[in-house]
Amino acid sequence: MTAQPTSPAPETPAGQAAAETPEDHLVTTLHSLDLPEGTLDYTATAGTVVLREEPEGEEYGRGKAYAELFSVSYLAQNTGETQRPVVFAFNGGPGASTVWLHLGLLGPRRVDSGDAGAPAAPPHRLLDNHETILQVADLVVVDAMTTGYSRPAPGQKPARHHGLAEDRDLIAAFVVDWLTRHQRWTSPVHLAGESYGTTRASAVAARLMDRYYLAVAGIVLISPVLDFGTIVFSEGNDRPYLHYLPTYAAIAHAHGRHEERMLQDVVDEAEAFAEQEYPALLAAGLRLAPAQKQEAAARIGALVGVDPEWVERADLRIEHMAFLAELLRDRGLVTGRIDGRFTAPAGNGNAARMETDPSIDQLAPSYTAAINQYLGTELEFSSDVVYEIMSGRVHPWSYKDFENRSVEVASDLARLLRKSPHTRVLVSHGYHDAATPFHASEHVLAQLAIPQEDYEQRIRIEYYEAGHMMYCHEPSRLALSQHLREFVTGAGEEPEQD
Length: 498
Known about the structure:
This protein folds into 2 domains: 22-229 and 364-489, Rossmann fold (3-Layer(aba) Sandwich), CATH 3.40.50; 233-357, no CATH class. It is globular. The termini are far apart. The strands form 4 sheets. Strands 1, 2, 3, 4, 5, 10, 11, 12, 13, 16 and 17 form an 11-stranded mixed beta sheet that branches. Strands 6-9 form a two-stranded antiparallel sheet. The protein is of the alpha/beta class and 498 residues long. Helices cover 34% and strands 19% of the residues.
């Protein structure tokens, strides 16, 4: 690989303070990836770009710098394609950098993170990703404000970007800026988000259409959350108890609580119960006779692999952090939230809730080591700030537009699909994901305010026998990578009828 020269920053005269106007800081390197089909040559441009905004009110003029966003752009070389698709990818949190999708799934290099029961030990290493999306599309991974190396411009406050609407507008502005800089406005644009990144992707896609009339070709929702009311446990809200139950059953299956049964059979039974009997049981409340409550607790306990008496004491309502502490209590273990296949010793065998998430604890070190080494050596980029893998500094995160109602972007997604007839959606669920349960996503997607034929023809839903970051599970990584390539290229779709 070869570093390409960049314009040097203007020299500052002695004794004069450095200019307050920030400059782009970009480094481009050349790379090759050996694939079974042949060699893929590509450039990687890593660094921060300065985003500017026009003055508000009646003052028109040059925009003022307000943010410096970090990204890595991968552009394939010598492909002969003039309108190659481009995928913009981001993770969520809020507060998560895009290291996870970058080095776990999409980029030309991937981290060897290990998996449940066998997390990678140091020294951590990077591997060539022969399944990279770069085979069929150019890729831009971008870090949201205060994650990665993204920071506000000098004199600006980071808090102005720490909120759903503010973050949405910032990422949308970045996409528009990138397409303009690279003269790629006629390329099919795809957005790929994970976790809160799916909230972001739906909101950004709608913003691009509403504000700029940019209709994205596709949206990839990996471990989605489109309506927080379906997953946030709060007083008087029974929806999360219903939607989490199939995930609890799947995690119980992963730990041997359903011996000699297929995972799909367990999930199907749990989903049927969650949709049919369970809502009526919770709605009955104090009208439920003691014998009926005991019977219900026995049924739920058998489904999710815990003591029925514990379920009964919980009033048939199992909160997810409590479940993850309870499921393997008899073995002295707690279960992962991001991925329920992971376990760790319990610090307190009587704790009501899990102390920490073993799945993040066991995966994050390999990603942290890999991204810092990769950016500094192979991509030759350096910065005077810390690369924030996961940052708590984004909080408090503002949802001011949702006062007295559930935070949701399902309406944004539905509006976009109604406005843009060619936009398609790929949804990826992990059965063992106790952060964004698959049944909640299924429910929200089925309630979108779109025609039924659009739901059936334009939304593709896939499932994987892993958790939130299903790509740490090798069979799931291979399957998801294949599904992504098919989605971006439109492979296997029926042609439109005249």
